Amino acid sequence: MKYHFIGIGGIGMSGLAMHLASEGDQVYGSNYEENERVAYLRGKGIGVFIGHSYENFEKPDVVVRTTAIKQGNPELERAIFESVPTIYRMELLKSLLLRDTSVCITGTDGKTTTTAMVSKILIDSGRDPTVFLGGINPILKDGNYRKGRDLIVSELDESDGFFASFKPDFAVITNVRGDHLEHYDNSFDNLKSHFRYFSRSVGKLLVTNADDPASERIFTDTLTFGRDRGYYRFTDRSTGIMNQTFRCFRGNEDLGLFKLMIPGEFNVYNATAAIALTHEMGVPTESIRNSLESYRSVDRRFTFRGLDDFRNLFFFDDYAHTPDEISSTIRGAREFFPGKNVIVVFQPHRYSRLVRENGRFANSLKDATEVCVFKLYEAYEKGQYAIDETEVLKGLSSYGVPAVHAVNYSEILEWLEKKRDAVILFLGAGDITEASKMSALKLCEAH
What we know:
Distance between the termini: 53 Å
Strand order of the largest sheet: 8-7-9-6-10-11-12-13-14-15
Shape: globular
Largest sheet: 10 strands, mixed
Structural class: alpha/beta
Number of helices: 15
Helix content: 25-40%
Low-confidence stretches: none
Strand content: 15-25%
């Protein structure tokens, strides 16, 4: 089979493209821009056109697209004109998961880290999973993809509702919060209904968060994890410089102490979910403990970018883009670096999310020492919105948090050059990651 991927450079699309190529299919595609995954795919012999064009067609048998590809895209229009079957990325993933024992990790927050943790635990224990990850992690040979044969582990994106039709053998739902509601008629109840439907289709074991209020109301008869409640529970969490420990119980059974080299209570929740799932799948406790202690974060999950010795600035990059994620990341940074200033460069992601959260972003940022609010990343959203990133600045002002506005990278850099003795967090789901890399490059290698 010959597959044409529209948007092949996306994190989910590139993993699927590599998998089909490894299975002997012909694969090529197009992408809006050059990026790291495009370069990687080319290095593996997968052709990529930059830009979308009617001329990018090479007589494929199937066209794969994402929901971001709308009517009017020239490659999609040509596929329709030539009657070439067109499927969504999630449809392709669903068909692949049906071929083997499947493990899916979904939820609003933490699914990428939990998927990476589960994958590492299984690999370290001698299993040989195929893995589809929504981020880049060194545990996987190809970063966001690993070719295996025992079972398939996949992060499952809940953003557009298609996930509800999946029927995995094992699954984790990290939590359920009101994000991506533009795909659910702006109804949290609609989103919860999709999660409920998904939960009923899990074949063997579903793990859910006992401390998450929405999950408690949605799910019944599941294996639960949490801090205050749950069959798998963590207690005695203690934080140190660049590490944290916690004790985990399975019912009344003490599984002992576990250590993580990544910050934040939210990551202990992720780890406890991974412990619950893999322990029930038969992985020995000691193997799980060793895997978690040697676990290193997925790219853009509290990723260390560099140290400016001259100014004593530590640079970290994180994908946190919802209020809950942002506040959790700031708390985690303060735990890892007690007594240090925590300075945030934040980029809002999507107008619709800014509107929906209605001031919660400023509230989530108020524990930062200072904030630079970068121009909003629109993520293909069009239309007229009577709001932009200055809404966050106004909110921060009302909380008395020092804040500035930046519309280009040079303004961020100029602001950072004046800072001393702090942890710098670049937060957001857009191109703010490029600012983190450039800042570290400019400031950390300048002396």
